[in-house]
Automatic annotation (TrEMBL):
Highest taxon of source: Bacteria
Name of the molecule in the record: AB hydrolase-1 domain-containing protein
The AB hydrolase-1 domain, residue ranges: 18-102
Record Pfam families: Abhydrolase_1
Amino acid sequence: METTKGTLQYNISGNGKPNIVLINGGSGPIGGWMKILPAISDSSSVFSYNHFGVAGSDKPMVSQDGLNIVNNLLEALTSEGFEPPFLMDGHSLGSLYANLYARFTRMK
C-alpha cells in the first residue's frame, strides 16, 4: 500500500466484526502472526502490517518514534477503509504502540 511516506507491506484477512489490528513489536514481521491469523480471521476482519524498515515495507524516511508509527498506522487504516472500532493486539513494543494509538486518536 502506498502512503505519503512510502510503501507498507500489509495483509487484510477475514470478514466480520470486530475489526482487529495486529501490531508488531520492534522489527518483528507480520509472519509472526501467522500461527493465530487463520483462527481469528474465521470470525473477524484482521489487519496486520510491517512497520517501515521491516521485511517488505520501504525503509523509513523519518524517525520511527511512537508518534510517527501511530500516524503511519492511522494513514494505512484510513487508506484501506479499515474502520473503527478496533480490537488492537500488540506484540511486545507493539502493545505500547496500540496504547499510544488509542490515546492519540481519542484526542482527535
